[in-house]
């Protein structure tokens, strides 16, 4: 009898993930972040997410900014929709801020400091080390969605 092989796929995101707690509406928070970070976050399209359990599809707005000169991309993804939460943990998380940069480690603390200094932001912290299996699944689906949109 042939021995069964198990394929384990380890997903490692190519970006740094910051959680933002804010009571601001998504368009208002984008405007505030644009002023603080000197970016141009713009709404592209809603991210349609269908949980694995076959629940109804939920739409999550996301905003995108790319600087070709600095080789940097920023995305702001809302964690809440009328259909539910994208990531249930950490509790009460309002937004996900994803950043791509070749040397992100050097600028990450300054970026986090600027996000925390944005009016309307109660708290912001890195989520990279706290990603659950569900979070990795959601982010993997989001990356697949981005490859179609961008």
Q: Can you tell me about this structure?
A:
By secondary structure, the chain is of the alpha+beta class. The chain has a domain at 16-100 and 109-126. It is 28% helix and 32% strand. The protein has three helices and eight strands; from the N terminus they run βαββββββαβα. The chain has helices at 26-37, 104-116, 133-149; strands at 16-22, 42-49, 58-67, 72-78, 80-81, 84-85, 95-100, 121-126. The strands form two sheets. It has a six-stranded antiparallel β-sheet with strand order 2-3-4-7-1-8, with helices on both faces. It has a two-stranded antiparallel ribbon with strand order 5-6. The mean pLDDT is 84.
Can I get a quick summary?
By secondary structure, the chain is α+β, with helices and mostly antiparallel strands. The protein contains three helices and eight strands; from the N terminus they run βαββββββαβα.
